[in-house]
Design goal:
15 helices; six-stranded mixed sheet; four-stranded antiparallel sheet; 12 strands; 2 domains; elongated; Rossmann fold; alpha/beta
């Protein structure tokens, strides 16, 4: 709207000046080329500076968010100073881009004022030259309108450049709209309501990378997991443990191959149809602002009796009863008003309430002490004995009594057998990992779980 108004005023000013001193049009045409040249020259730099400024601000917000989430860890390891220095460095980079923008803006301002002075000089000069043929009042009108013409031209150039610079934000929004989107939540041929009734999982030549051009993180995974089988997944950092779970939930789509659950290719069904049938207990217990009830049953699908039975199954009944409001006790953001062990047991209760035939545990006991670890493991063995369980193990002892152990290395399965069989082979990778974890046999692990 402002741009249209400026253009109308500019047209009115130019028309008045030309009607008084027609020869003024000659200088105005030549000056318009100078204005346009300055604008284009400025835009080439300011557009990129604006883009750099937008990009340089994102790391500041990201570091701020990460610092808030990990504040207790930063203080525990006394790493406040490195984070402060990193924050200063990122702010400095953003300030460099902003300073460059101010400098370019001043460059344009000086030249626009120079051109404006030339416009006023030309109007005054032609008015003096034509003093014999025009009235003094009209000459004064021409000069005064030339002064207005200068400010209007300056505003027009600035507004047109600001519009183009601000379109950088639109450009970034368009980039987000062009990102690859997930598959639809539903499929034309959904699986049966009872699927997966058995919980059998088969990986067929599964390869996966996180983005086009990056190296493969899973390289030809082939294995068959039988119904109700308990599988421990171990390996060093970067071996592909979490990537395997991301592929199972279709967070990342495979490059080649596929996964079948109870004989159905999961890549032929909708994401909601798949994920609603799988249960997961993450490494970091995830709770939302609300109550214990809404965290266990966010969709209000189960009765209060079902919820209490689930809470009792994970041995939290007495603790929850003693809370103010019982199962309607408020839960703060991220569950910060509850202990880590309680949060993890509530996540276990949420998975148990879902009654899925496939449970995934992504190092679910990595952040709890041994007592709560043993409590969680006992609850899993008791409540999920008829469920297929895939556990990414942080502590080797917790999977020593599983049916089989999958050992991953550089995105490939290098060992896949029962823990006792792997422990018999001293040259096996699992044997060395178990030794480092302090477990010598399946019996050692079971005794630890009875703590």
């Amino acid at each position: 709207m402002d741009s249209v108004q400026i253009k109308m005023l500019l047209f009115d000013t130019v028309l008045t000046s030309i009607s008084v001193t027609p020869i003024f049009l000659v200088s105005l045409i030549s000056l318009s080329f100078l204005y346009r040249y300055a604008q284009k020259y400025y835009l080439r730099s300011s557009r990129e500076i604006q883009r750099l400024l937008s990009i340089s601000r994102s790391p500041i917000y990201a570091l701020f968010s990460e610092t808030l989430n990990g504040l207790s860890t930063i203080r525990a390891f006394e790493k406040q100073l490195p984070f402060q220095l990193e924050n200063q460095n990122r702010i400095q980079k953003a300030n460099e881009a902003e300073y460059a923008g101010f400098t370019a803006n001043r460059w344009l301002g000086v030249r626009l004022e120079l051109f404006g002075s030339v416009v006023v000089f030309a109007a005054s000069f032609f008015a003096v030259v034509s003093r014999q043929t025009i009235d003094a009042g009209l000459a004064g009108l021409s000069v005064s309108y030339a002064l207005r013409l200068t400010s209007n031209l300056n505003w027009l150039v600035r507004m047109s450049t600001d519009v183009e610079n601000n379109l950088i934000s639109v450009e970034r929004c368009i980039q987000f709209t062009e990102l690859a989107i997930e598959a639809p939540p539903d499929s034309p041929n959904p699986p049966a309501t009872s699927w997966p009734a058995k919980g059998a999982i088969e990986f067929k030549n599964l390869t996966m990378r996180y983005r086009e051009g990056l190296p493969l993180v899973l390289k030809g995974i082939n294995c068959h997991i039988r119904p109700r089988e308990k599988i421990g997944i171990v390996g060093r950092t970067g071996s592909g443990k979490s990537s395997l779970m991301l592929a199972l939930f279709r967070i990342v789509e495979p490059t080649e191959g596929h996964i079948e659950i109870d004989g159905i290719n999961i890549h032929n069904i909708g994401l909601e149809e798949l994920r609603s049938k799988l249960a997961i207990i993450p490494q970091d217990p995830t709770l939302f602002t609300g109550t214990i009830r809404t965290n266990l049953d966010p969709l209000d699908k189960y009765t209060e009796n079902d919820i209490w039975n689930t809470i009792e199954a994970v041995e939290l009944k007495d603790q929850v009863r003693n809370l103010e409001g019982s199962i309607d006790h408020p839960v703060s953001e991220y569950g910060e008003n509850l202990s880590v062990g309680t949060r993890q047991l509530l996540c276990l209760a949420r998975a148990l309430l879902k009654r899925s035939n496939i449970l995934v545990m992504d190092e679910a006991t990595a952040n709890v002490d041994y007592k709560n670890d043993a409590l969680i493991q006992k609850a899993i063995r008791r409540e999920f004995k008829n469920v297929t369980v895939l556990t990414i193990a942080h502590r080797i002892n917790t999977i020593m009594d599983y049916d089989r152990v999958m050992v991953l290395d550089q995105g490939q399965i290098i060992e896949f057998d029962s823990p006792n069989e792997l422990m018999k082979r001293e040259e096996s990778v699992f044997y060395n990992l178990a030794k480092q974890g302090g477990a010598k046999s399946k019996e050692d692990a079971v005794s630890l779980l009875d703590v």
